[in-house]
Protein: Mechanosensitive ion channel protein MscS
Amino acid sequence: MNYYETILSVLDKWYKGFAEATPRIAVGILVFLLFLALSSFLSKISVRIFHKFFPKSKNRSVVALIKVFKFLIILSGAFISLEIMGMGGFVLKFIGSLGVAGVVAGVALKDLVSSMFSGALVGIDKSFADGDYVSIKDVTGVVEKIGFLTTKIITDEGKKVFVPNQLIFSAPFINYSASGQRKVFLDLQIASDQDLEKTTKVILDEIKTFDATDHIDEAQVIILKQSFGIFYLQARFFMKKGENIAKVKSDALLKLKNKLEESGIKLATQIQIDPST
Structure:
């Protein structure tokens, strides 16, 4: 066997194959470069359109979406270019061989991808923003930062809680800052031998003196029910925006207790409330 001739034969075959494929390779490269330029051009147009329809959108969310859009265009261009070069079948077989790994990775990264998309959707939907007072999945506090994977919340106790973004859209959440004035509800128990008309008037007049009370004329004192010789009352009033509801409730209960005692009105004791005693 003439090894020299074999090598020359192989090289000659490669040369002819490369010469035949050169036009396809050149066209494929040109097509890919065209898609590359097109992705940059369309990205700039998309940014302008996005800001036109969503002027208050954050740059972080816009950049994330545009990057995904640009990547999809480049990926499409790469597949078309490879098909022109005659390598489409090889690429598809290679991708098919990664199918099992893709399924495993998809399951493993499901929560991660969900949080990423949820973070982008928060920026688009404007459900809440940094500085808003919210309640998400039993976590209540001020939003410090909306990240790509988690939302950082400072609770009333001063703790920093990281809430996965995927939880935001999996259940209802409350944005107190977007709700305008918040309404405060205070439950009080009054013994049945007390003057209810006088009691409700004293409570209502005292509520109207609170610094945190807003819409004074809409304050209410409701008698909810009577049970075992106890009248259950509920005081309702709007709180001024920006006030700390926990502090407002604490101050209000203390002032109401003192005012009722000054007026000779007794609150129900635990012994009176407990029917077993």
About this structure: The first helix runs from residue 3 to 53. The first strand starts at residue 133 and ends at 136.
